[in-house]
Inverse folding.
């Protein structure tokens, strides 16, 4: 049996309350959208090469850089669009260079660069033609910079650059003997690829990986300036980005050795962008996750997680969280690398989003085999999950609900007994007053499962008493009038099966020792509770 189908059977078995493999995948998609929105600024889709000026010019075409000279001569201080167009279309290379340089400075302004005016003036095809002028590296650089900034704008603005034929021209410049020109071309390609999956795939189709990966095969990457290598990494990450469709698997397999190499550099910006790339590549099917984990990068990801660097932790945690949504075997790779040793810190991290992602990751581990649930227990995470349920941020609480309900679905009697010992029932029952019908339904399913376990060992009466004393019975009864039909049915099922009058005398519960060790005992002190 394949790992994928085995995983599906396991999830169906443990989540027979409707949380099968498709439910887990659906939830991952929803959670990822929410998590990505929360971190949308952590990795930027597109970047402009901005020239910071002390005094912003008042006219859109007034460039304000009196120290810049072309061939020893001061450029005029104010150019109209017509003058820029005239210079760009001049027969004189010197006039063309001067006009492109002015255009580049205008497009490099921090505030409101007049990108649409340049597009409307049909300047892009001329700029693209200048990229081929290898006899004049300065005009190649200025044109590349100007086009980079146009491509950093809206999709329509990026489209204008693409339609002007810039992609193959930029790919040719990646191998330029002039590092600053090569870097600017790589930056521009990153902006185009970052616009979305369509342009990402178009850049790939034009053969961008060949020159980029040739750079990454350089024996000693320290020969490149840090800024150059950061741009290469950022562009590679944009080639991994976006879904619907995801990047072609063949491209992913070609990219991975370069990403693994970058993961071992000692530069925070490079590490962060590389980890974002890995997070994009692992956000998909088990097959895609397998391609990534086969590259052997999981131990390095865990090592980077242990550094605690704020710019690196979010993408590493996202990557590991994505991997543990896969098969049991893929999840085990993360556990075997020692990832759980970091989770006591992550689950009480001062950044709520990191807490939330950590709880989400644990929820996918507790959806695994009982041996994997035991690793969560051994790492000391259960009391921390209970604490989140008691007083965490609500979005983190929701992830903790999934973590403990998955735990209950797939755990052994001893494991669920330990969970109850950790006082999980009270915060779970309190969260039944939440407005989220799905979370209420999931909690009711977990409570039903615990009661059913207790009933099999002859101890549901005592557990029912505990629930009643915690105020849970009143809450569950009130949910019978909930407007969500699934909530209504789940609460009614619990009341009918465990709290109705005809069940009151069904059991005579006496704490006795049993060879199996599963005897259900509920002393007044909940912390010594046992099945």
């Amino acid at each position: 049996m394949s790992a994928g189908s085995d995983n599906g059977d396991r999830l169906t078995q443990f989540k027979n309350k409707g949380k099968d493999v498709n439910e887990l995948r659906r939830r991952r998609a929803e959670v990822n959208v929410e998590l990505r929105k929360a971190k949308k600024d952590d990795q930027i889709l597109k970047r402009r090469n901005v020239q910071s000026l002390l005094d912003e010019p008042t006219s859109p075409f007034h460039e304000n850089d009196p120290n810049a000279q072309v061939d020893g001569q001061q450029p005029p201080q104010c150019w109209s669009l017509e003058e820029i167009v005239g210079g760009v279309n001049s027969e004189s290379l010197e006039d063309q260079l001067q006009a492109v340089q002015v255009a580049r400075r205008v497009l490099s302004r921090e505030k409101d660069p007049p990108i649409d005016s340049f597009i409307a003036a049909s300047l892009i095809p001329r700029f693209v033609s200048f990229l081929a002028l290898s006899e004049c590296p300065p005009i190649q650089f200025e044109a590349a910079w100007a086009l980079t900034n146009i491509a950093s704008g809206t999709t329509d603005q990026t489209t204008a650059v693409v339609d002007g034929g810039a992609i193959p021209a930029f790919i040719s410049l990646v191998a330029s003997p002039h590092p600053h020109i090569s870097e600017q071309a790589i930056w521009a390609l990153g902006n185009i690829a970052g616009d979305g999956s369509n342009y990402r795939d178009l850049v790939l189709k034009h053969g961008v990986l060949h020159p980029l990966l040739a750079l990454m095969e350089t024996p000693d990457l320290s020969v490149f300036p840090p800024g150059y290598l950061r741009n290469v990494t950022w562009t590679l990450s944009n080639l991994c980005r976006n879904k619907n469709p995801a990047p072609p698997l063949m491209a992913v397999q070609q990219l991975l050795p370069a990403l693994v190499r970058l993961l071992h550099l000692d530069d925070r910006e490079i590490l962060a962008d590389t980890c974002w790339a890995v997070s994009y590549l692992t956000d998909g099917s088990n097959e895609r996750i397998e391609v990534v984990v086969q590259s052997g990068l999981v131990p390095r990801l865990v090592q980077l997680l242990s550094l605690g660097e704020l710019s690196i932790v979010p993408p590493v945690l996202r990557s590991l969280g994505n991997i543990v949504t896969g098969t049991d075997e893929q999840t085990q790779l993360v556990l075997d690398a020692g990832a759980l040793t970091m989770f006591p810190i992550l689950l009480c991290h001062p950044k709520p989003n990191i807490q939330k992602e950590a709880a989400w990751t644990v929820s996918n581990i507790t959806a695994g085999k009982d041996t994997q649930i035991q690793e969560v227990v051994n790492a000391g995470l259960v009391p921390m999950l209970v604490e989140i349920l008691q007083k965490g941020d609500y979005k983190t609480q929701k992830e903790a609900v999934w973590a403990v309900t998955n735990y209950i679905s797939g755990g052994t009697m001893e494991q669920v007994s330990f969970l109850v010992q950790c006082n999980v029932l009270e915060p779970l029952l309190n969260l039944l007053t939440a407005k989220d019908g799905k979370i209420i339904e999931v909690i009711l399913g977990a409570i039903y499962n615990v009661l059913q376990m207790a009933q099999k060992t002859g101890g549901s009466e005592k557990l029912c008493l505990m629930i009643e004393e915690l105020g849970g019975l009143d809450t569950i009864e009130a949910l019978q009038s909930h407007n969500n039909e699934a909530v209504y049915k789940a609460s009614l099922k619990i009341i009918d099966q465990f709290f109705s009058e005809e069940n009151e005398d069904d059991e005579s519960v006496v704490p006795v020792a049993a060879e199996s060790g599963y005897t259900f005992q509920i002393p007044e002190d909940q912390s010594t509770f046992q099945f």
Summary: The chain has 30 helices and no strands. Residues 48 and 149 are 5 Å apart (CA to CA). Residues 437-456 form the longest helix (20 residues). The mean pLDDT is 86.
